[in-house]
Amino acid sequence: MLDRIKSSLHALSPAEQRVGKLVLDDPRAFGNLPVAELSVRAQVSKPTVVRFCRSMGYEGLSDFKLKLAASLSEGVPFIHRNVAASDNTGEVLVKVIDNTVTALLKYRNDASSASIEKAAKAIVSVHRHGKRLGFFGVGNSGIVAQDAQHKFFRMGFHTIAHSDGHLQIMSASLLGPGDCLVVISNSGRTRDLQDACAIAKKNGATLVVITASGSPLASAGHIHLAADHPENYERFSPMVSRLLHLMIIDVLATAVALHIGTTQLQPMLRDMKHNLLNKRYS
Predict the structure, then answer these.
(1) Spatial CA neighbour of 72 closest among 6, 1, 18
(2) Residues in contact with 275: Cβ distance below 8 Å, sequence separation at least 6, in sequence order
């Protein structure tokens, strides 16, 4: 949580930056002080303190303090061990699993439930009004986009997934008000995704971005689902980011399914499973 605040400071207003620096200087004190005292220490107004919390993806000051306390008391220690060329198979096994578990637990402690809820409601609105839902990603994130398309397609969404830059531009050009585009990126700096976001946003579509805090893409959408993790992807192919993004999609899909309701989804999924029976060996 503190890493996310630090990486996002530059994107905040000067007043909100002072609140962020107050958190980073003494997070435990921030969690215990009333809003009046916090505003005095940061030299900002009380609404600015609350606005900072919402800018970070939380419902308000109370929600922010709860997450901050959980992060400080139950936070996962920074454990990331790079795989070396000299490692044997046993060492690779331990390092890859430990790195993944650390990233997933860190996300559990740091994730903004308010942002996830906001994204889920935006996607549910697409379902209710028969609009389009798109998933864009490049490279490893393109695989996650395909997985997301499969999950939401099974729930009755009109959905597509693209990993090709030209198709992303073309598809974004066809989106409009009521449609929703979910963009997935590890770095948050892919030019094709930035261009597609700008087009979709101009056309009135709702943008949900799953990417690293403080990246250009993080501020390009309407809803940011932060995906921050320790990973050195310059030496070996990224491993953690793909699994983290897949988990976020699973959380989002589950939240959306609960909003839609089992009464509507279960009969459809039951029929789908029944119709697939002849595709399997008995």
Answers:
(1) 1
(2) none
In contact, 108 and 74? CB cutoff 8 Å: no
Question: Domains in the chain, ordered, with CATH?
Answer: 2-74 (1.10.10.10), 113-268 (3.40.50.10490)
**Residue 184 carries which side chain, given as an amino acid letter?**
I
In single-letter form, the type of residue at position 148 comes to: A
Please check whether residue 56 is in contact with residue 5, taking contact to mean a CB–CB distance below 8 angstroms: yes
Task: Kindly report, residue by residue over 109-142, the tens digit of the pLDDT.
Answer: 788 888 999 999 999 999 999 999 999 999 889 9
As a whole number of angstroms, the distance between CA 74 and CA 239 comes to: 25
Global confidence as pTM: 0.74
